[in-house]
Amino acid sequence: MSRQLIDALLARVARWERDPASDAVLGPAVDDELERLTALPGFPQDLEARYAVGLVLWCRCVALGPDGEFALSKAVDMLAPIAPQLPYALPEELRHWVRIREQAVAESVEAMQEVDRYYESRNLEALDRAITLLTNAAHRLDDTRPATATFLFDLGNLFWIRYQHTGLPIDLFITADAISKATAADESGYLLGRDGLLHDQASQVYTAWERDGSLENLQAAVDLQRCAFRLATTDRPSQAAFLAYLVQMGYERTGRRELLDDAIATARWAVAQEPANGSALLNLAHALTHRARADQDTAVAHEAVDHARRAVGAVPAADRGRALQILGNAQRVVHTLAPEPAVLAEAVQTLRQAVAETDPEDPDHVRRLMALADALRVAASDESEAAEAVALARRVVAATAPSAPEFHVRRAVVVTALVKQHELTRDAAVLAEAISEGRAALEVTPSDSVELPSVVRAVVRALGSGRVTADRSAVLQEAVDLVRDCIGRIAPSHPEADALAGDLAALEADHADAQLLRYVETPDDAALDRIIASAEAGTAATSTALTTLCEALRLRFEAYSEVTDLDRSIEAGLRAIDELTDQPEPLSRAQVAVGFSLRLRYERTGHLASLDDAIELLRRSAAAAEPGSAFLAARLNMLGNARWERSMRDQDAGLLESAIADLRRSVELGTAAGTVDPGHLSNLALAVRTQYETTHEPALVDELVEILQRAVRESRPDNNRLPVFRSNLAIALTDRYGRDGDLADLDAAIAVHHEVLAAPTAGPAFRAGSRTNLAHSLVQRYRRTGDHETLTSAFAEYRAIVGETSHPPIGRCQAAFAWGALAAEVQDWAEALEAYAAAIAQLPLVAPRSLDRADQEHGLRQFTALGPDAAAAALQLADAASDPAVAGELRARAVELLDQSRGILLTHQLEARSDLTRLRTHNPTLASRFEQLLALRNQVT
Fold it and tell me: Would you say the C-alpha torsion 560, 564, 566, 568 has a positive or negative sign?
């Protein structure tokens, strides 16, 4: 039989070699022959049989191409014992893989020897050598991934040993990562049955998580237990049940809904495989209880009760306390969704039994006391029952360490119990105690705690209970502030986020405009964050809340230059425009809001389409305003300002004239109404200054100074835009110095710039712009006076601008370029080289891949001399260097900077092609669609 099968397999190899397109080494027939031969007694020692099987597997690997990794691994395993005796009987490429396998095995053996040395001496260096050897072995076999599984698994366990030695989180992370990759690569089942070790590791890490509350530890425990479940060959339902429990813990700590769904699906599988598995039933009931509460689903709550009842009868005696607690909690949820006194009474009785059947020394005893206290609070109908709930809740808090993650939510149970006691007794002292306890609980509640809404609601309930004895407005305002702050802290995915947002929507709508105006006049970051949170809560209820959100996010962007705020602002405003087409005045307000944000996007990115869209929206808004209204003055000012920005881009004198006309009309309307907005004056001054720079009409400079002096006079001291007006006045004084040459104007401008930078309301982006203007003024003063201290100050300001990441890249690049030019002017070549190099580093950001080609070229056009100037500075230093090696490095640096400055767009194209190549490899259809859209865009642009 052996001879016939060997001959048959060798014949298949010969036939495939003659015709590789044939199926000689593929299909059920050859699988049957391989299985029969390898199953014969003595096969492992029969070298001829191993040779025949190995050759067939090698041919199969070649035939399958990229899908033949498994066949390659098996072929190498089969032929490894033969290679030393008959090396030339194997194909050259196959001999190559056999040698790699031998090297990897040798490294693995040596690694295990180092592990033995570690256990003998506890010398971490021996363990690290073992890790290095095994890492090298795994890398050698990277192209035969199934064979890598064992090495990766062993590597993960070495890092586990290291983690137990060091306690370093990175060692634990690598443990979980390596074992996860090993499990995924184990196509041949080498690792099956090794689940016990991984389960023990997961349990130990989970215990560590219970001590320190680290989500990283919990994630590692989940990863290790997931691998244990995949590798289990027996008792898989129990492994799945523990995995479901760990994932459920992740949900309870993060509020991520996908974790809850994962836990339920895993527990359902375990119950389906073993219906009487008490642990699986318990974890399924626990997860379903959370889903019922999150979804307000009575049917799911009843299902949770059913599974919990079955679990109570199926779990060991040691787990009955937990099973009864989960049953009682599920009954509580049923009562909450469909109030029924009998169900609540049953829940209280179940929880009493859970407490009675739990050892008081067991840490879970406190958890069961808390569940009972909360159930008693709900069920209390007289003073004594309420007092019992308060007493139990206090016992729970007293038994909980303040550093424990659950400490704050347990204090919230005390608060709600006290509120219930107050409702039954009308004792003002009890209510005052509840409010005080609630405020104290909030102070110790982490801002990122998933339980924050529970604590906030407890405090709000206490505050609300005092409406009959306290000032309704003040109490309600405090409650609203607490809820608003909570919404600002929790993640949008939090299970209670929608409910909290709905509670606030109506309360916030009427106050939004006044709050925004108050912020503009007197900035308060916390107030702005509350406005944003309340607007986000109201977007589901009103379209006007979307406009408020657009304006508030734009203000926060102006303060902190977070691009995500600007993007969200535009998104919210565009949604508002879509929803307000039949409401003229709210629509006009939304158009202004989006126009303002789009213009800021243009200033940030140079994307011309954003500016054009802004002008069109502002034009529509101004056209819809009533003649002579205050609204028209504001909208004309914004329209004129946007048109001025566009005229600057194209050097369009006609568009500049239109912009100035809009701005003058805006100021005239304000003057007629007796309330000129200083910002309108400032914007008019910007346009007039541009006209002066274009026409050089001397009279325009005097008008410019007069307009800006008026803007400063019209501003209140607490106006946060006052630094902007002063900054513009300093620029105007510099312009007048340029006309008249009066050094007093220049010194006055420099002094105003310093005042602006010292103002506490100046944000980082504005400060960068002010530094740019100050630097230019200092440069002019140095050229006039030759004062070295002034030159040093100019260098320092330019360096600070370049380091300010909130400043747009083009502004940083311009500052660095000017810095370099100034240094070159005074022949400080080292300073010049530093500056030019900093400018070149900004070029990829000046013309990012996200811009159209025309916008990229426009951004780079002003920097055409940058590369040659940088190279010249480097060469000047090279010529002056006494050390030939240093001179050579500087000349090489010159070439490098020149290349970097010239290759920006080419680099973008190469990177785009590389990205597209990767996309085509993974998803050809999507890549093809992308190319079509790219071609269409190029046609349009």
Answer: negative
Token readout for 808 is 């747009």
User: Tokens 């889903």 sit at which residue?
Assistant: 291
CA 786 to chain centre: 50
Q: How far is residue 927's CA from residue 599's CA, in Å, rounded to a whole number?
A: 33
| Residues 566, 601 contacting (CB under 8 angstroms) | yes
Q: Which of 158, 178, 251 is nearest to 220 (CA)?
A: 178
DSSP single-letter state for residue 88: G
pLDDT in tens, 139-165: 766 544 555 677 788 888 888 888 888
CB atoms < 10 A from the CB of 853, how many? 13
User: pLDDT averaged over the chain?
Assistant: 81
- Structural tokens at position 277: 């598995």
pLDDT tens profile 365-417: 888 998 898 898 888 888 888 899 899 989 988 888 887 777 877 888 888 88
Q: Are 795 and 753 in contact (CB under 8 A)?
A: no
Sequence-distant (6+) residues with CB within 8 A of 617 are 577, 591, 592, 594, 595, 598
Q: φ and ψ at 492, to 5 degrees? A: -60, -25
pLDDT beyond 60 at 569: yes
Give the pLDDT confidence of 475-525 residue by residue, as tens digits.
546 666 776 777 776 667 666 666 666 555 434 444 455 567 667 666 778
Largest CA distance in the chain: 111
Whole-angstrom Cα distance, residue 749 to residue 730? 4
Q: Are residues 141 and 186 in contact, defined by beta-carbon separation less than 8 angstroms?
A: no
Taking the mean position of all CA atoms in its chain, how far away is CA 791? 43
Between CA 502 and CA 509 the distance in angstroms is 12
Q: Is the dihedral of CA 517, 520, 526, 531 positive or negative?
A: positive
> What is the CA 930 to chain-centroid distance, rounded?
26
**337-340-345-347 Cα dihedral, nearest 10 degrees:** -30
Q: What is the DSSP letter of 643?
A: H
Q: Which whole number is the average pLDDT over 452-467?
A: 64
**805 vs 826: CA distance, rounded Å:** 28
DSSP state of 906: H
